[in-house]
Amino acid sequence: MNEFARLFSIERNIFQRFVIVYKYIRFCNSDPLVKDVLQKIFDDTAKYIGEPEENLDEDKFLDVKGQALFSREFWIYYNNLEIIYGKMKKIKNCKLKDKEDFNTLYRLFSKPYSKQMLELSFKIVNSEVFDRLDQECFFSHNENDDKTYFEDDKSILYVKGKKVKINKQDKITNAHKILHHIFISNKDNLIDDFFYSEIAEDEFGELDYKSRKNNWKKYHNTCSDLNKKIELDIGIKNFLKFNTGRKGKLKLNPKYL
């Protein structure tokens, strides 16, 4: 949104300024986040002082809250831009065959102060929209969004706010057991190395792990498959670091902690 304001401020051609305003309001009308914010501002205005186009009499002015007054002013500046959008949309549809609409628009917004007024309109609309988006982001932010953790009961791994479903069915998979060992059994030691032998005994009940020559391959292959799944599902590479051999071990990649 700020890019539209920047382009408008450096544009000298009046028609091109109108085009920038047209594209700006079209963006506001199509972007879901901006549309939602504008609707909330509209609702705030209507709640206290009626629809934005209603006249504000003296008694109502004295009773209304400060924030609602600002909302009222917001719509005045927004309407400056919306008027241009409406005219430009009509001009675009008729391909400038009828120049009267453009001439009217030109006369309306070609005053010595018109450019500054519209720049102020951009500034006020952008400022209020971004302020509200920042507030919503703050209040809706979940501290777990930035963490890496494993929901054991749902078999869902979360990495920096992105989630990977580990078990597709009720069956407990090898990948689930390894993640359980890391995040549940050793939740206070996530930076540690986890040896295949201890995972085999604690999670798989394989007390004879050390007597099986190539048993380490099961854990190595599970780590490899898990990394591939995580990369495929959420684009995160090398979630686990691991090696080969009977004394093999694995650990969480520190960059994801």
What report would you give on this structure?
This protein has a 3-stranded antiparallel sheet with strand order 1-2-3, covered by helices on one side. The chain is rod-shaped, with a radius of gyration of 30 Å. It folds into 2 domains: about 140 residues, no CATH class; about 110 residues. With about 260 residues, it is mainly alpha-helical.
What is this structure's SSE topology?
Blueprint lengths: L1 H9 L3 H17 L1 H18 L8 H6 L2 H29 L5 H9 L5 H27 L7 E4 L4 E4 L2 E4 L8 H12 L8 E2 H8 L12 H19 L5 E3 L6 E4 L5
Antiparallel strand pairs: 1-2, 2-3, 4-6, 5-6
In short:
This protein has 257 residues and is mainly alpha-helical.
Descriptive labels:
mainly alpha, 10 helices, 257 residues, 3-stranded antiparallel beta sheet, 6 strands
Strand order of the largest sheet: 1-2-3
**Major β-sheet annotation:** 3 strands, antiparallel
What best-fitting shape do the alpha-carbon axes yield?
Answer: rod-shaped
Query: Using DSSP, what is the number of strands?
Result: 6
Protein structure class: mainly alpha
Low-confidence parts: 51-69
Radius of gyration: 30 Å
- Rounded mean pLDDT score: 82
Number of domains: 2
Question: What is the terminal-to-terminal distance?
Answer: 34 Å
- Provide a count of the helices: 10
β-sheet strand percentage: 5-15%
Question: How do the helices and strands follow one another from N- to C-terminus?
Answer: HHHHHHHEEEHEHHEE
Q: How much helix, percentage-wise, in residues? A: 55-70%
